[in-house]
Design brief:
The chain has a two-stranded parallel ribbon with strand order 1-2. It has two domains: about 120 residues, Pectate Lyase C-like (3 Solenoid), CATH 2.160.20.80; about 100 residues, Pectate Lyase C-like (3 Solenoid). The chain is largely without helices or strands and about 300 residues long. The protein starts with a helix and ends with a strand.
């Protein structure tokens, strides 16, 4: 037997079987199977030509400019609004009439700095060193002075409305004619007894309170409720009592012997108030039509 034919016969048979499997059947031709309508419409639509395709604009990148740092040269009438002056060394600096509103002065050294008439509204002065600083007539509205050192500071005429004074040290500070409405003090705030009393009167009222002999000189007590309070012998010299309620709803010596020299009482309610021996001078301003002499007050020249 021819061995070559014996070996080639099975191989030939396997090739034939493979070719038979690759022959398409009648069901596999696809000639009698219709396409779905969606597919037919898609195939019948004309393909876009090169001229129909709009070119896509190239993407561009415009870098955002970094925020500009606030340039501030601290000095008289300087514009340092919103400046970052944290921990700045401004000892004995002349900053009167400067705009420091919203500035960050956390921990700044402002010892003996002149900040007279400066705008420090909403500034953050927490932990700042302001000992012996001149803050007369400064605007400290809503300023954060928590933990600040204000010992011996001059705050005459300063606006401290809504200022945060929690934990601040105001020992020996002069708050004559300072505005203390809604100032935020706590038990840790160190402040002379006179000015804490003024703060209590303007924020809590003092109706019927015993204030005999109290030192309220040069205090801002505008619209304060002092109705029925005992102010006999109190020092109200230079105090601003504009539209304050000083009515004595019970008969008594509520203002007798008090010092009203230079006080502003315009618009104040003095109904049934006892002004026996109350001292006043040429600078005292009374409600319109009020006769102090008829009420028992005594005019003094030296005030």
């Amino acid at each position: 037997m021819n061995l070559r034919k014996l070996f080639l016969a099975p191989a030939f048979f396997l090739v034939c079987l493979a070719m038979a499997a690759c022959e398409p059947s009648a069901g596999d031709t696809g000639a009698d199977t219709p396409l779905p309508a969606s597919a037919e419409s898609a195939t019948s639509a004309s393909l876009p030509t090169q001229t129909d395709v709009q070119p896509t604009a190239a993407l561009t990148y415009t870098p955002t400019a970094p925020p500009q740092a606030i340039v501030c040269n601290p000095g008289p009438a300087a514009n340092c609004k919103g400046a970052d002056l944290r921990g700045a060394g401004l000892r004995e600096a002349w900053l009167f009439d400067a705009n420091l509103s919203g500035a960050d002065l956390i921990g700044a050294n402002l010892f003996r700095a002149n900040l007279s008439a400066a705008d420090l509204s909403a500034a953050d002065l927490s932990g700042a060193h302001l000992s012996n600083a001149n803050l007369s007539d400064a605007d400290l509205w809503a300023a954060n002075l928590s933990g600040a050192n204000l010992t011996g500071a001059d705050l005459t005429g300063a606006n401290l409305i809504r200022a945060i004074l929690r934990g601040a040290d105001l020992s020996g500070a002069d708050l004559s004619r300072a505005y203390l409405w809604k100032a935020d003090l706590d038990d840790a705030t160190q402040i002379d007894a006179k000015w804490r009393l003024v703060w209590e009167i303007v924020n809590q009222g003092a109706s019927g309170r015993d204030l005999s002999g109290a030192d309220l000189g040069r205090a801002i007590l505008i619209e304060a409720d002092l109705s029925g309070a005992d102010l006999s012998g109190a020092d109200l010299s230079g105090a601003d009592l504009y539209e304050a309620n000083l009515s004595g709803y019970r008969q008594g010596h509520y203002l007798s012997w008090a010092n009203l020299s230079g006080a502003d009482l315009r618009g104040a309610n003095l109904y049934e108030a006892n002004l026996s021996m109350v001292r006043y001078n040429a600078r005292t301003m009374w409600p319109e039509g009020f006769d102090p002499v008829a009420a028992g007050a005594v005019y003094v020249v030296d005030g």
